Design the sequence.
């Protein structure tokens, strides 16, 4: 019997994760071979590799723990690839030589794949004086165009996917140009843009105060904070860009606030990272852990969840040592802090199987409880690893425990960390899981609601012909197996029909127990009023989210989001 829960899962495996030689001959005969290869590669750094290989294999089996696609595709292949998905580049210096040095570093990183984030706030504004040249500065936006061209060129040379994120502070003098940049449908297509919104700015918006745009200590202009906020909101309402990142909250909560300052995230936003920061991702597939789905006794198997979390933390920690890095600075960063981003996928499917309506108070409560359990188990697993293998090199008990996240952490975890240290400075994050959730049998991705219960997809067959294949959500498949064609009950809601504030409620519930951030899109109906739209962002800010990304159907980016199939 096939291991795959859906035909699409097998084709994703074959296209993206199956190890093949350069001429396309498969080396992984079956998906079991893929699991074996990954388990072996990640166990190779252990003192007792055989024992750990078996445990790692057991976690991968049946798509219960899903390392990010890059790990499944690259581990144990001997290829010159990194196993990390997320990078933020070094601080861009405000001089020509430094800027182009950073462009080069970005190109080398992009060549190995992975999403890259940059903060462009460090470049002096357009029109500022350039000493010694007798000219005016061209400003950060013009350099972003150069980065965009670099990305296009590298991708056209056949490199693996590469998405980019650019951030800019809300007090940079060129912020308005940044906000408006993507109104031009031909511009910056390889970038997602996000404004770094600070707490003083949000206060100024609330109190309708003036707001200084500054660079290098000099005030260039003063605007009304509310006008600037409205500009951000209007652009986002019209064409879904830029996103908003609550940067002060990110830094205040960060376990490492004593040794790093964050000003950028990876492209999908779940990983706020310092300069040269890198992170790898992995997700527990909650949809596979529900016992008696839709039944009287439906429940998540918590013992199995704990076991998987412990094994996953160890596997991800090993990945740091097994991986290559595009730049030595990234390697040094990763080894000094040993960040990992363990999260979940299939959350909405799991809730469905428990008959909970995504977005309801009950579903939010359940989500918070599961995420709490995952964080608790993951932190303790990392403490155990510290006892066995040592804490991360920059660990400082007192400072670490003073961070926003650790102040809210359970007392038993705080005590264990104080006594033994911790192996991984940050542990949790929720990725989009765009491809791995298809590979796992089309489970709902990350913490998103189900996007479409069924849709048709064109598939290219080996003989060159095309067929249309129905792709059905994993929970719906189970429902159909059990109840045939009985109509789906009313708790089967989807991303489009949910109220925007229900999306926010779920993001906020999960964020309480996620030390990094969450990739989440809040779908808004086309007819939502501008005022109601702005309230979504205020709700996200007030409920403790670290950022907010919405999507409202619009003429620039289209009516529906496309399902990503890249790996
Ligand atoms: O499903 P998979 O593990 O392949 O990846 P994902 O969870 O959808 O994306 C994880 C991260 O990979 C994103 O946040 C990006 O940093 C990066 N990524 C990218 O660089 N380009 C894409 N087209 C998609 C993801």
Sequence:
């Amino acid at each position: 019997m096939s291991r795959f829960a859906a035909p699409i899962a097998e084709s994703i495996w074959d296209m993206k994760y199956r190890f093949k030689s350069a001429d396309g001959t498969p080396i992984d005969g079956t998906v079991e071979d893929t699991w074996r290869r990954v388990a072996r590669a990640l166990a190779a750094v252990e003192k007792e590799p055989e024992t750990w290989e078996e445990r790692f294999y057991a976690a991968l089996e049946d798509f219960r723990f899903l390392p990010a696609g890059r790990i499944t595709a690259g581990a144990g292949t001997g290829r010159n690839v990194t196993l990390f998905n997320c990078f933020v580049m070094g601080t861009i210096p405000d001089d020509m030589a430094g800027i182009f040095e950073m462009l080069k570093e970005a190109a080398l990183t992009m060549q190995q794949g992975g999403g890259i984030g940059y903060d462009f706030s460090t470049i002096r504004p357009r029109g500022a004086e350039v000493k010694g040249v007798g000219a005016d500065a061209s400003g950060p936006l013009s350099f972003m165009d150069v980065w965009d061209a670099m990305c296009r060129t590298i991708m056209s040379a056949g490199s693996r996917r590469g998405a980019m994120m650019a951030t800019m502070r809300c007090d940079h003098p060129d912020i308005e140009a940044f906000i408006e940049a993507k109104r031009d449908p031909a511009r910056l297509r390889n970038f997602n843009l996000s404004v770094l919104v600070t707490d003083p700015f949000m206060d100024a918006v609330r109190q309708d105060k003036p707001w200084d745009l500054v660079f290098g200590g000099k005030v260039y202009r003063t605007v009304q904070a509310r006008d600037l906020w409205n500009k951000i909101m209007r652009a986002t309402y019209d064409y879904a860009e830029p996103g908003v990142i609550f940067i002060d909250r990110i830094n205040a909560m960060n376990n490492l606030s004593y040794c790093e300052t964050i000003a950028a995230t990876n492209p999908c936003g779940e990983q706020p990272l310092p300069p040269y920061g890198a992170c790898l991702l992995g997700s527990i597939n909650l949809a596979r852990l529900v016992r008696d789905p839709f039944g009287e006794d439906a429940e998540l198997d918590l013992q199995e969840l704990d076991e998987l979390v412990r094994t996953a933390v160890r596997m991800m920690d090993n990945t740091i040592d097994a991986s290559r890095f595009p730049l030595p600075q990234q390697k040094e960063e990763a080894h000094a802090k040993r960040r990992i981003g363990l999260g979940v996928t299939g959350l909405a499917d799991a809730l469905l199987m428990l008959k909970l309506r995504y977005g309801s108070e009950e579903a939010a409560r359940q989500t918070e409880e599961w995420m709490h359990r995952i964080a608790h188990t993951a932190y303790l697993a990392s403490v155990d690893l510290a006892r066995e293998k040592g804490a991360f090199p920059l660990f400082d008990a007192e400072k670490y425990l003073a961070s926003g996240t650790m102040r809210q952490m359970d007392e038993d975890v705080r005590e264990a960390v104080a006594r033994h240290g911790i192996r991984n400075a940050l542990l949790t994050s929720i990725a989009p899981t765009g491809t791995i959730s298809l590979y796992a049998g089309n489970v709902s991705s990350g913490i998103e609601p189900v996007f479409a219960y069924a849709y048709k997809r064109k598939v290219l067959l080996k003989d060159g012909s095309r067929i249309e294949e129905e792709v059905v959500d994993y929970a719906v498949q189970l429902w159909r197996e059990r109840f045939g064609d009985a109509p789906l009950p009313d708790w089967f809601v989807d991303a489009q029909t949910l109220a925007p504030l229900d999306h926010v409620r779920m993001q906020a519930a999960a964020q309480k127990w996620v030390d990094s951030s969450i990739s989440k899109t809040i779908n808004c109906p086309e007819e939502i009023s501008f005022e109601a739209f702005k309230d979504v962002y205020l709700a996200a800010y007030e409920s403790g989210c670290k950022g907010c990304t919405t999507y409202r159907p619009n003429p620039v980016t289209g009516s529906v989001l496309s399902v990503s199939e890249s790996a």
User: Anything to note?
Assistant: The two ends are 26 Å apart (CA to CA). The pocket of cytidine-5'-diphosphate is lined by residues 68-69, 85-86, 114-115, 161-163, 266-268, 270, 281, 431-436, 519, 564, 566-567 (CB under 6 Å). The CA atoms of residues 118 and 166 lie 5 Å apart. The longest strand covers residues 278-285.
